[in-house]
């Protein structure tokens, strides 16, 4: 279950600009939509900066940009310039799954310390139930599963300078919000969850992330 309000009072009172990590996936695109809608509906004087990390595959900025451009037109809202970060090879640990985590953290804290943003949101959501995962054709590294476990995170949704308000919701709940907000046939097809090295412009349907997407939405696009 996600909170009714994603922007708490202390953020509304003190924050002028917050960043939203946008991977181009279904979760972060929905979070950007919900935050933008709340800013508009509550008439908040807050700027939003979409932020994307290229990660170790090149498709993230492209799909993130698609979602951002759609939401700007759909919600009649202008974001601050989309920031895209490209980790160099010397910042990536090739022996670790998602070995760019150090660079990821370094850049987000730099944005905060330099005052470019005052707060940031990430769209980490809860993994599907174990019984559902057992039916997937692929497995996810334990490190990532722990990051998506609200019990492991002590249910920390709000931090001093950050929030992960989707942490207590799995993708099936997010799919229901897509449906409720009439986004399943317009925003959802613009997103991409697949992390295959082979299929760069479509979903492979086999990786863990594709399996989760199928479990939640019953479709890939």
Descriptive report:
37% of the residues lie in helices and 9% in strands. It is an alpha/beta fold. The chain has a single domain, classed as Rossmann fold (3-Layer(aba) Sandwich). Strands 3-2-1-4-5 form a five-stranded parallel β-sheet, with helices on both faces. Helix 3 (60-75) links the parallel strand 2 and strand 3 (83-85). Helix 2 (26-41) packs parallel to helix 3. The protein is globular and about 45 Å long. The relative contact order is 0.17.
Number of helices: 8
Q: Please state the overall shape, judged from the principal axes of the Cα atoms.
A: globular
- Look at the structure and name the CATH superfamily: HUPs
Integer-rounded radius of gyration: 17 Å
The ordered H/E elements are: HEHEHEHEHHEHH
Based on secondary structure, the structural category is: alpha/beta
Sheet with most strands: 5 strands, parallel
β-strand percent reads: 5-15%
How far apart lie the N and C ends? 24 Å
Number of strands: 5
Low-pLDDT stretches:
none
Q: What name does CATH use for the topology? A: Rossmann fold
- In the CATH hierarchy, the architecture is 3-Layer(aba) Sandwich
Helix content: 25-40%
CATH class: Alpha Beta
Trace the largest sheet across and list its strands.
Answer: 3-2-1-4-5
């Amino acid at each position: 279950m996600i909170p009714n309000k994603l922007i708490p009072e202390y953020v509304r009172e003190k924050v002028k600009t917050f960043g939203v990590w946008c991977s181009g996936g279904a979760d972060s695109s929905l979070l950007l939509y919900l935050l933008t809608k709340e800013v508009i509906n509550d008439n908040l004087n807050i700027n939003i900066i979409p932020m994307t990390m290229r990660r170790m595959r090149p498709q993230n900025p492209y799909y993130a940009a698609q979602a951002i451009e759609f939401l700007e037109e759909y919600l009649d809202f202008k974001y601050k310039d989309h920031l895209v970060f490209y980790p160099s090879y010397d910042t990536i640990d090739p022996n670790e799954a998602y070995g760019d985590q150090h660079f990821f953290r370094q850049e987000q804290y730099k944005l905060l310390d330099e005052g470019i943003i005052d707060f940031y949101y990430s769209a980490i959501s809860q993994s599907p139930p174990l019984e559902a995962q057992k039916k997937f054709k692929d497995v996810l590294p334990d490190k990532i599963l722990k990051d998506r476990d609200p019990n492991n995170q002590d249910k920390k949704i709000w931090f001093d300078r950050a929030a992960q308000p989707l942490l207590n919701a799995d993708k099936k709940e997010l799919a229901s919000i897509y449906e409720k907000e009439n986004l399943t046939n317009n925003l959802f097809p613009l997103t991409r969850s697949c992390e295959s090295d082979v299929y760069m412009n479509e979903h492979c349907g086999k990786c863990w992330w594709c399996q989760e997407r199928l479990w939640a939405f019953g479709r890939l696009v």
